[in-house]
């Protein structure tokens, strides 16, 4: 049991995998040698007909229900379009400006929320960068490198400008 837990959690006994090989084979559907770490009987190659039939029935039921829901949504959309078209034509002088206003408002709210979320992410990163001295967040080394390049380039420009000023004074 302890060896099995070590294997599934990436322990020393499991070869360093985060999830067990058997589990990943079952998820992917690669059942060959499932359950025996390569020493099984090859159950994936010789599945009973009942298991194969059960998988096929489950897949057909899932696909059929999704197809039914898709057809229902398409039918509802077409009916709504048929009903709404005359109303849209009658009220178009009012609806078009209203639709433009609603679209602009929605765009504003969505962009405001996205920019706010991005700002919170940047503030969170900056807090981790500034407060966790030794364990820096991802990308901190790039920021430090860019800062040092910018600093060295600023010194080069300063020195160049100082040389030009000195040359102009001596002439």
What does this structure look like?
With 171 residues, this protein is mainly alpha-helical. The chain is 75% helix and 0% strand. The chain is built from five helices and no strands. It has helices spanning 2-8, 21-28, 49-90, 92-131, 140-170. The longest helix has 42 residues, at 49-90. The chain is flat, with a radius of gyration of 32 Å.
Give a short synopsis of this structure:
The chain has helices at residues 2-8, 21-28, 49-90, 92-131, 140-170.
Rg measurement, Å: 32 Å
- Give the SSE string: HHHHH
Strand runs, count = 0
The helix content, as a percent range, equals over 70%
What best-fitting shape do the alpha-carbon axes yield? flat
Tell me the structural class.
mainly alpha
Q: Secondary structure elements and their pairing?
A:
Elements: H1 2-8, H2 21-28, H3 49-90, H4 92-131, H5 140-170
Task: Give the key terms.
mainly alpha; flat; disordered N terminus
């Amino acid at each position: 049991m302890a060896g099995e837990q070590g294997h599934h959690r990436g322990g020393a006994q499991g070869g360093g995998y985060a999830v067990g090989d058997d589990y990943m084979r079952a998820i992917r559907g690669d059942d060959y040698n499932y359950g025996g770490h390569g020493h099984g009987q090859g159950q994936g190659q010789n599945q009973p007909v009942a298991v194969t039939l059960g998988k096929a029935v489950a897949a057909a039921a899932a696909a059929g229900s999704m197809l039914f829901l898709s057809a229902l949504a398409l039918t509802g959309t077409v009916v709504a379009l048929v009903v709404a078209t005359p109303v849209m034509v009658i009220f178009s002088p009012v609806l078009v400006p209203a639709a433009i206003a609603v679209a602009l408002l929605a765009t504003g709210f969505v962009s405001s929320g996205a920019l706010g979320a991005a700002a919170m992410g940047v503030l969170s990163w900056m807090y981790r960068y500034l407060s966790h001295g030794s364990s820096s967040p991802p990308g901190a080394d790039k920021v430090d490198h860019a800062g040092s390049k910018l600093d060295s380039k600023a010194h080069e420009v300063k020195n160049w400008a100082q040389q030009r000023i000195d040359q102009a004074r001596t002439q």
